[in-house]
Specification:
The structure holds two protein chains of two kinds. Helix content of chain A is about 0%, strand content about 55%. By secondary structure, chain A is mostly beta strands. Chain A is globular and about 40 Å long. By secondary structure, chain B is mainly β. Helix content of chain B is about 0%, strand content about 55%. In chain B, the strands form two sheets. In chain B, strands 2, 4, 5, 6, 9, 10 and 11 form a seven-stranded mixed sheet that branches. Chain B has a four-stranded antiparallel sheet with strand order 1-3-8-7, with no helix packed on it. The chains are: A mainly beta, B mainly beta. The interface between A and B is medium-sized, with 25 and 23 residues.
Chain lengths: ~110, ~120
């Protein structure tokens, strides 16, 4: 499968701690995106990183991309209870579509 | 803009019945995507449209599924006849540019239960 695969699948942390999720993919990509899904809701775009970029920041989010290892990581710093959600990586293989991973469930305990 | 609008939000039907899911994309977005989400298979792309034209329907599971986009502001996904294994959350998403290169905006989803 060419879909991104997040690791770990589930993460439980205390409020204020950092949360890190990883995503691997199998072939070359044009860009990679991360999305968040709160329970019972649609996915919300967080950040897009292009294949020629190595790191990108957005607020408390930091995304890295290592094309040599075909992997990406999403770091959420100083987590809050509101960050409790599922996080998906999605890869663009240049065919006008995104391939989504299975998602990472993150629970932030107040 | 109100975002992507989907209706109904919940649908419970009996096996064999026809189901129609509706989507209104964000105005001005040229791409529209239909996804299905289940615990077992995750988020699967069913079909996408560009300027109202279906481009890739290879993800449509079988002939019981059909999708249309009669104009830029409306799309439907129809299942006829429905089966219990079709139970899932169906999302519609739209984007301004090609789906991989641009942010996709998702609707709230339709939770379909087929009894």
């Amino acid at each position: 499968s060419q879909q991104g695969e997040e690791d770990p699948q589930a993460l439980s942390i205390q409020e204020g701690e950092n949360a890190t999720m990883n995503c691997s993919y199998k072939t070359s990509i044009n860009n990679l995106q991360w999305y968040r899904q709160n329970s019972g809701r649609g996915l919300v775009h967080l950040i897009l990183i292009r294949s020629n970029e190595r790191e990108k920041h957005s607020g408390r989010l930091r995304v890295t991309l290592d094309t040599s290892k075909k992997s990406s990581s999403l770091l959420i710093t100083a987590s809050r209870a509101a960050d409790t959600a599922s996080y998906f990586c999605a890869t663009d293989y240049g065919n006008n579509r995104l391939a989504f991973g299975k998602g990472n469930q993150v629970v932030v305990i107040p | 803009d109100a975002g992507v609008i989907q209706s109904p939000r919940h649908e419970v039907t009996e096996m064999g019945q026809e189901v129609t899911l509706r989507c209104k994309p964000i105005s001005g977005h040229d791409y529209l995507f239909w996804y299905r989400q289940t615990m077992m298979r995750g988020l699967e792309l069913l079909i996408y449209f560009n300027n109202n034209v279906p481009i890739d329907d290879s993800g449509m599971p079988e002939d019981r599924f059909s999708a249309k986009m009669p104009n830029a502001s409306f799309s439907t996904l129809k299942i006829q006849p429905s089966e219990p294994r079709d139970s899932a959350v169906y999302f519609c998403a739209s984007s301004l540019m090609a789906g991989g290169a641009d942010t996709q905006y998702f609707g709230p989803g339709t939770r379909l239960t087929v009894l």
